């Protein structure tokens, strides 16, 4: 089996996302899989009406791979999406597909899709000038402020009161409409802790509870948070699998907050970091992904993310209140 892995930066140990890519290379060698790590921007993209395979990378032609695994995540550029669409159109299997990656890179778009079937924190899109009264009336304080695109906890902060938010609002007004932010309901019961669930091909593979070690509200492992294995109750499994299916993600890192009545979906990631998850749960994430790829290829699927064949989808939740009620009975056990 021949795979490409798309990575948008130079493969250097100092790059935060590089260790996961090295893990893919390590596991691919062990499993006898040919894996090439490629930078999408190094392709020359030529579109014409001629049929047949075409891939020009750094001036040389490449043979068609069996599958492309993207590790570009929320930093996926328009150029990278165009390259992925080009190869998807030529029948290469994608994990994940460009449409899903583009959707999930936008945190507000993700919540818009999930809002009618999953419990989410109430969210407001920032517009200028910032209406502080609207934020206080709809969300109250403290309030979470996020950039629409961001990863590993970057671009997220907590404003504890109106005075602090006023200062931030003045700064945002100076930044102008070119800066896209969202304001989000603060879930106090989840301060400094959440659950990261890895979903692969419609199955919850592993879960890790992340906790802040400094009393802050961010629990990201990349920011020094502590990860521990988390026993997933059935409602939480169904919620995570539903999120991945609703967002068309073959591989997803679903982040879920603890709420007084159950859970709320914080966000999803198309290229989730997994160093902490592997350490906490004792699994090999690349191996789990490659196993699915091998099965898909052996079953002669033309494209993992293609609409031409059926994907594994969970049944939708009836509404957010039902999810909250369904998860409420397990919250006490889950938080001990």
Q: SSE layout and pairings?
A:
Elements: E1 2-6, H1 18-31, E2 34-38, E3 43-44, E4 56-57, E5 60-61, E6 67-70, H2 78-89, E7 93-95, H3 98-105, H4 107-114, E8 123-125, H5 132-138, E9 143-147, E10 156-159, H6 162-175, E11 181-185, E12 193-200, E13 203-211, E14 226-229, H7 234-246, E15 251-259, E16 262-269, H8 275-281, H9 285-298, H10 320-334
Parallel strand pairs: 1-2, 1-6, 6-7
Antiparallel strand pairs: 3-4, 4-5, 8-11, 9-10, 9-11, 12-13, 12-15, 13-14, 15-16
Helix pairs in contact: 2-3
Structure overview:
The chain has 10 helices and 16 strands. The protein is an alpha+beta fold and 336 residues long. The chain is globular. The model is unreliable at 301-325 and 327-336 (pLDDT under 50).
